[in-house]
Amino acid sequence: MKDYFGYKDKVCVVTGASSGMGEATARMLVDLGAKVYAIDLNDCKVDWITEFIKCNLASKEEIDEAFAKIPEHIDAFFGVAGLSGSKTDYRTTFDCNYTANMYITLNYLKNRMSKGGAIVYCTSTAGLEWKKFKREQNKVVHSKTWEEVQEATKKLANSAPSTFAYMYSKRCLSQFACEQAVEFATLGIRVNNVLPGSTDTGMKQEFQDMVGGEEALIAEAGLAGRLATSEEMAAPMVFLNSDMASFTSGLDMVVDYTDTCLKVLGKKKNLEAISATNPIICALAKKMMNKSAKNALNSGKEN
Ligand SMILES: NC(=O)c1ccc[n+]([C@@H]2O[C@H](COP(=O)([O-])OP(=O)(O)OC[C@H]3O[C@@H](n4cnc5c(N)ncnc54)[C@H](O)[C@@H]3O)[C@@H](O)[C@H]2O)c1
């Protein structure tokens, strides 16, 4: 049998490997013979990984400590960890979703990967409109250090609702992936981006609460009539970082069972086409979210 994917003995780093898509990715990579270095805040249940490294990706120092435990040469990176923003503040959400991936890429992947290496980030269809809002993202995406990103997002972190950090961080990461695909191409390293639609993972309940129930969430899953499974998102990521995708770099791979097609064809309203940084929109959204949180609290008291 020919090993088409070519993962045997490759050093693969997977963030978010303790739940959902990251966990499914780690499992597939183990099955394909890779040496998996799993990074997460919570313990990892995947058998036969090479090493689990506990790390809060919203902390630059913890990332430095984690990468000191990983072999010098890295073959593939899977940036899967993420936060919805419904339970964490703006800063933590943004740093886990964007800043960590930027920092790892520029400080650890650029000099520890070589020709044939591959990177995939997991963004979201919530960041689908990144091309339209490049001007909003440029300041962040062109920041080269952790501190510069903190400075570029300081105002937003104090004024915008933390769920807005989700859309903004995913847009920034999609743009970053596109720009880095060009940078890394000269090194023979591929960079791609997977944009998942609604998926049944540890984050499901948070998204469900945001959109108003399971039915509404399923309506965000295109014409599938169900949510995707974690494995259905892990598979495209594993494919993109494999030898099977050796000529694929700079791709935005939307995995949403036609949800985006419906929007492109005007058969569905595109709710993602709004600014993530406009102060009036952010203030209005914050007010609405505070109001619905208060209502939820009051109805809880009445029950
Ligand atoms: N579930 C969906 O519908 C959906 C849709 C689009 C995109 N996504 C993206 O998919 C990715 C995977 O999420 P999932 O849906 O599998 O959710 P999940 O909650 O099941 O998994 C996320 C993982 O990230 C880890 N994590 C969170 N914050 C961390 C931190 N600060 N440091 C280290 N690890 C941290 C969690 O512990 C968890 O193991 C995320 O980037 C998410 O934004 C999810």
Lay out the secondary structure.
Elements: E1 11-15, H1 20-31, E2 35-40, E3 51-54, H2 60-68, E4 76-79, H3 90-112, E5 118-122, H4 134-141, H5 146-152, H6 154-159, H7 162-185, E6 190-196, H8 204-211, H9 214-218, H10 230-240, E7 252-255, H11 259-264, H12 279-302
Parallel strand pairs: 1-2, 1-4, 2-3, 4-5, 5-6, 6-7
This protein binds nicotinamide-adenine-dinucleotide (NAD).
Nicotinamide-adenine-dinucleotide binds next to α1.
Describe this structure in words.
The protein is an alpha/beta fold and 303 residues long. The protein has a single domain, classed as Rossmann fold. 47% of the residues lie in helices and 12% in strands. It has twelve helices and seven strands. It has helices spanning 20-31, 60-68, 90-112, 134-141, 146-152, 154-159, 162-185, 204-211, 214-218, 230-240, 259-264, 279-302; strands at 11-15, 35-40, 51-54, 76-79, 118-122, 190-196, 252-255. A seven-stranded parallel β-sheet has the order 3-2-1-4-5-6-7, sandwiched between helices. Helix 1 (20-31) links the parallel strand 1 and strand 2. Helix 1 (20-31) crosses helix 10, helix 3 packs parallel to helix 7 and helix 4 (134-141) crosses helix 7 (162-185). The termini are far apart. The model has no long low-confidence stretch (mean pLDDT 95). The chain binds nicotinamide-adenine-dinucleotide (NAD). Nicotinamide-adenine-dinucleotide binds next to helix 1.
